[in-house]
Design brief:
The structure is a single chain. With 117 residues, the chain is of the alpha+beta class. Helix content is 21%, strand content 32%. It has three helices and seven strands; from the N terminus they run αααβββββββ. The strands form two sheets. It has a five-stranded antiparallel sheet with strand order 4-3-2-1-5. A two-stranded antiparallel sheet has the order 6-7.
Length: 117
């Protein structure tokens, strides 16, 4: 959905929307950075409706940003289910923390490796 209709709904206003847009502009850099990786278990956040396989907690301009990743059944690639800046609720509590040993960046259209980051 284009940004203008979303803004017109009045749901996203003010400082939160400014942070989301600033974060979205640097999304690739966020994924290239060092971040904490968690196996996301929705049952550990019963007040949330987010369903995702992984939760990334990354630093953006001195603040934590949550990135929820998921994939369709039998798919190879993950997609961003949701992302937003950390507020009062800590979504990492009760989640299984992973240690990322290797990360490889690939151009999807050519499947060519851009290198490890």
């Amino acid at each position: 959905m284009p940004i203008k209709p979303v803004l017109a709904t009045g749901f996203f206003v003010g400082e939160l929307m400014d942070k989301l847009l600033a974060c979205a502009k640097t999304f690739e850099e966020l994924l290239d950075s060092n971040y904490l990786t968690f196996r996301y278990r929705p049952q550990n956040n019963p007040t949330s409706t987010i369903i995702a396989e992984f939760l990334l907690s990354a630093d953006f301009q001195g603040n934590d940003v949550y990135i929820f990743l998921d994939k369709k059944e039998h798919a190879e690639n993950y997609f961003c289910r949701s992302f937003f800046p950390k507020t009062d609720k800590d979504y990492t509590v009760g989640q299984i923390k992973y240690t990322l040993l290797r990360k490889e960046k690939t151009t999807l259209s050519t499947r060519e490796s851009v290198g490890t980051v």
